[in-house]
Specification:
Keywords: DNA-binding. GO terms for molecular function: DNA binding. It comes from Krasilnikovia cinnamomea. This protein is of the alpha+beta class and about 425 residues long. The protein folds into three domains: about 210 residues, GAF domain (Beta-Lactamase, 2-Layer Sandwich), CATH 3.30.450.40; about 90 residues, Arc Repressor Mutant, subunit A (Orthogonal Bundle), CATH 1.10.10.10; about 120 residues, no CATH class. The protein contains 18 helices and eleven strands. The strands form three sheets. The chain has a five-stranded antiparallel β-sheet, with helices on both faces. A four-stranded mixed β-sheet has the order 8-7-6-11.
């Protein structure tokens, strides 16, 4: 079985593949939502996300962090301490004149971009520079942005890029996680020519990411039995406990979120109502909890009532905690997206809305251009009319981003059937739907 994360299978002709995928890409951007094989499913899904974010195939990634802001931000970033590891393992590629080594944060913002002057000049023409944002919503399908979106190492080859100016390049990237929480900290990327589309480059970035995580683990050793849950922006939660990362199924993810929300414990009947309001069958709940206990271990999951026996941290609890301390920027940085966005369980939906509305209200109240920009550029905030209006209000006349913001407001106003821009009450109502 071929590896879906590799761009080319053994023996493939790169030139033929570029042409083949390029034709499918042109069909896609022309309106064919289901381009023919041989486009990899991970690429097609990324194209759809890029198109859904209304990224212009001829566009360029925006530069979000200026020199002074960038310097301060990356000096304080957790990945700063592993920069020597990146240079040690990948420095040869950055020095060979053919490749770029880049590190981005969890939002896809490039922190370090290294290579020879000639290759960096070529990268600068597509805004692949420190401070630029390369998540899918801002730059289309690309290795670091897509690796963060799917939380997996992968390659993006030539015409697989959604942005036409980037299609001369090939890249391989791997996400890097916080060992204590499992939350993505960013990604390591190698960018170069077509020859990069081989199994060795993918293995190299993956090994580099694992080495970085191992080093971070030694710098911040977890307390015995410490556990953490990552559930924001993903349909299946990840539990990190005793040095292991366990990906849970959807139902077990919902149960764990509900148990974290009610540390005092929950009966089977209560959990049934939270999960299955139309048929809260306690027998079904007990069976699911029994399976969850086998995964977590009896030392972590207790019963009568069902509860977590030890303290478990969770990213969706971190956001409100930071907001209570007035750390709005930190809370937004910790917010990777809606809580279990695919879940329709009433108990999970309530927590999801509460966390998002708390954060959203804090960002609006702060009226900070950078925070508002981060929100509207996110996948969950791209259609939030009120936030776009607030963001536009912070842009002075003549600002490069202002025409784009005004255009987006006009588009959303028409899409929601409003008579004129600026209807905050109506947009707020739309947001809550």
């Amino acid at each position: 079985m071929s590896n879906p994360w590799l761009a080319l299978h053994a023996g493939a002709d790169p030139a033929a593949r570029i042409t083949e995928v390029g034709r499918a890409y042109e069909r896609f951007v022309a309106g064919d939502a289901n381009p023919p094989l041989p486009v990899r499913p991970v690429v097609v899904e990324s194209w759809r996300r890029s198109a859904g974010a209304r990224f212009d195939p001829e566009g360029t990634a925006p530069i979000e962090l200026g020199d002074d802001e960038l310097e301060a931000y990356r000096a304080a970033h957790p990945l700063a301490c592993v920069l020597p590891i990146f240079r040690d393992l990948l420095g040869g590629l950055a020095d060979d004149g053919d490749h770029i080594v880049a590190v981005c944060d969890a939002h896809g913002r490039l922190l370090w971009v290294e290579g020879t002057p000639a290759v960096l000049d070529g990268a600068a023409r597509m805004n692949f520079v420190p401070g630029a944002r390369w998540d899918e919503a801002s730059a289309g399908t690309n290795a670091p942005g897509t690796a963060l979106a799917v939380d997996h190492p992968l390659q993006i080859f030539a015409t697989e890029h959604f942005c036409r100016p980037v299609q001369d390049w090939t890249c391989a990237a791997a996400p890097i996680h916080d060992p204590a929480t499992g939350r993505p900290l960013g990604a390591i990327d190698v960018t170069g020519g077509d020859r990069l589309a081989n199994p060795h480059s993918l293995a190299l970035v993956r090994a580099t990411a694992l080495a970085a995580e191992a080093y971070l683990r030694t710098q911040r050793p977890a307390a015995p039995g410490a556990a953490a849950v990552t559930a924001l922006g993903r349909d299946e939660a990840v539990l990190t406990v005793a040095g292991r990362r366990i990906r849970l199924g959807r139902r077990h993810s919902e149960l764990l979120v509900l148990l974290l929300t009610h540390p005092q414990g929950r009966t089977g009947e209560q959990l049934g109502i939270d999960l299955y309001p139309d048929d809260p069958n306690p027998v079904t709940i007990r069976a699911e909890l029994s399976r969850l206990r086998r995964i977590l271990g009896p030392e972590l999951l207790g019963s009568r009532p069902y509860r977590l026996r030890s303290d478990v941290d969770a990213d969706f609890r971190t956001v409100p905690r930071l907001l209570e301390q007035g750390l709005v920027a930190d809370a937004l940085a910790a917010y990777a997206g809606p809580l279990l966005p695919g879940s329709e369980a009433p108990g999970v939906v309530r927590v999801r809305r509460l966390v998002e509305e708390q954060l959203r209200a804090a960002v609006l109240a702060r009226a900070d251009r950078s925070l508002l920009q981060t929100w509207v550029r996110s996948p969950w905030g791209a259609d939030d009319l009120q936030m776009w209006e607030a963001y536009a209000a912070t842009l002075p006349v003549g600002a490069p981003a202002r025409p784009w913001a005004v255009s987006r407001i006009a588009h959303l106003t028409a899409e929601y059937g409003l008579r004129a821009p600026g209807s905050a009450a109506t947009s707020m109502q739309r947001h809550r739907l």
